[in-house]
Amino acid sequence: MDIYGTATPYLPQLLDFVMDRVRDLSNKEVAADRPKLYEHLIGRVKAQASMEEKCRRKGYPVTPESALTKCKDAIGIRVVCNFIDDVYRSIDRIKAADWCTVVEEKDYIENAKPNGYRSYHLILDVPTDLPNYTGHAPSHYFVEIQLRTIAMDSWASLEHEMKYKHHVNDPERIEKELHRCADQLASCDVQMQTIRQLINESN
Q1: Active-site residue 65, yes or no?
Q2: Which position among 65, 104, 144, 161 bears the catalytic label?
């Protein structure tokens, strides 16, 4: 069974639409002689098997309705910024956009997860002329956006690699080192932000 049902062909189209809108936001910043919003922009439609596993883990029926209305991350975008201020500036621009509404947000930068994970998560409600999983159009889709600095993204990639390795020697030590590294990177992010502000004040 196709976990996204009849909505499957529309998800890549909506992903492209949202990524183009985020690019437009950054281009407007540059045109206004402000720094670009981000360094990297990455998007994906969640793989069928991953979405099925998530539905089961969350206790949802393995259906298109669950995948597209309960999980809310079938479409995912990662915005990787140079500095912490760029993360929050990007959030402000997205919240002010007329093509979406922010319906959920979690600040794991100010409130890091216990393992050290830092990022800012937004769930967007995006209206579209595309049909939804019931065939109804116009419709709405959820899109998850994760915003983080380059340092946070590097750490998250390493933590993800460790999590999905089935045979890791001394996992407790690795987790401890990862947490220590997360704190060091967070301190580095703050220091770089301070240096940037000092440079801007000098100008």
Answers
A1: no
A2: 144
